[in-house]
Design brief:
The chain is an alpha+beta fold. It has two domains: 6-13 and 159-334, no CATH class; 28-146, endopeptidase fold (from Nostoc punctiforme). The protein has ten helices and eight strands. A six-stranded antiparallel β-sheet has the order 3-8-4-5-6-7. The chain is globular, with a radius of gyration of 21 Å.
């Protein structure tokens, strides 16, 4: 039984003037981040400098050129431009660089996009990754540079009533789900009443939301997963969700709390947590063959109306789920 029953859904919305996105996304740093994210999924190409394929430094040159900033061609030279920035003072649009990836010294660069993540052209293509990733990028992080200086800071946005966000207007496709889950304290926003609906969502955040949705018991105790520190903000929720059988962890027993969750992983997770089974005829997605590991779970959530595909008849199983997508999936699943 869910802690929050959707049949009791009666949220009173207080009228408020919504601030247009340009009020908080007009800085050059935010423009760089927005441009960079548009190319997530672009393939890697050694020496590539165009959307047909990028290498890491070529991606940087291309994106910054879009806002009128010229960068040198190599990661090593990019690590010398602008002014040095401490890791604790990173801002959106800063250059972050890494050493000892494919050769000694500075050999990789990316664009910091906030919340501990950067977008970069990795060997698997342009993607968003945690700068603190303990398995690879975290230990190789070397420093950051700021080439966007002297911008006028926007005035702080006004605080909105609970469940309302400046970047989730009433006509936004996921508005109802985000508003409901927020009003029930299942999902939270960020400072200045922002939700950041297009941000990816991590395994730790998902564990926390499922713990709230199912009202799982929270207990003191040591972390079950060896890679979840005892002082991790979501340790109790991660333990609860693992004990409930929602998450089984990886073969090496790790949980990887900061790893972003994909659409196929959500299908598998929801199939077990909500005990879903396929309803009626199968839904055909051109990028999900029957041999795909999550074929059955994807059928389960698709035929139950929890998640659909895209206009090109794809499901995009390897795409990271956004906060907005996950909100809609969870809202629908709770209402089944």
């Amino acid at each position: 039984m869910f802690r929050k029953m959707l049949s009791l859904f009666a949220v009173v919305l207080v009228a408020a003037t919504l601030v247009t996105p340009s009020a908080y996304a007009s800085s050059k740093g935010d423009q760089v981040v927005s441009i960079a994210k548009q190319y997530i999924g672009t393939p890697y190409k050694y020496g590539g400098t165009t959307p047909s394929g990028f290498d890491c430094s070529g991606f940087m040159v291309y994106v910054f050129n879009k806002v009128g900033i010229s960068l040198p061609r190599t990661s090593l030279d990019q690590s010398k431009v602008g002014t040095a920035v401490s890791k604790s003072n990173l801002q959106s649009g800063d250059i972050v660089y890494f050493s000892n990836t494919y050769k000694a010294g500075v050999s990789h660069s990316g664009i910091y996009v906030g919340d501990g993540y950067f977008v970069h052209a990795a060997s698997s293509g342009v993607k968003k990754t945690s700068i603190n990733d303990p398995y690879y990028w975290g230990p190789k992080y070397t420093g950051a540079r700021r080439v966007i200086e002297g911008e006028v800071k926007e005035e702080p946005l006004p605080t909105l009533p609970k469940g309302q966000y400046h970047d989730v207007p009433k006509d936004y496709w996921a508005y109802q789900s985000i508003t409901y889950l927020s009003s029930q304290d299942i999902i939270n926003g960020y400072d200045q009443s922002l939700f950041k609906p297009n941000n990816s969502i991590t395994r730790a955040e998902v564990a926390t939301m499922l713990t709230e949705a199912f009202d799982l018991p929270i207990k003191d105790g040591k972390s079950i997963a060896p890679d979840v520190p005892e002082n991790h903000w979501a340790k109790e929720a991660i333990n609860a969700s693992m004990e409930a059988g929602f998450f089984k962890g990886y073969p090496d027993n790790t949980f990887r709390p900061n790893e972003e969750i994909t659409r196929s992983e959500i299908a598998s997770l929801f199939s077990g947590a909500f005990k879903l089974a396929k309803v009626g005829a199968a839904t055909t997605f051109v990028d999900v063959p029957k041999s795909f590991w999550a074929y059955e779970p994807i059928q389960n959530i698709a035929t139950n109306g929890i998640a659909g595909g895209y206009s090109d008849n794809t499901y995009r199983p390897k795409n990271n789920a956004t906060r907005a997508e996950f909100s809609v999936f969870l809202h629908r699943a709770m209402n089944k």
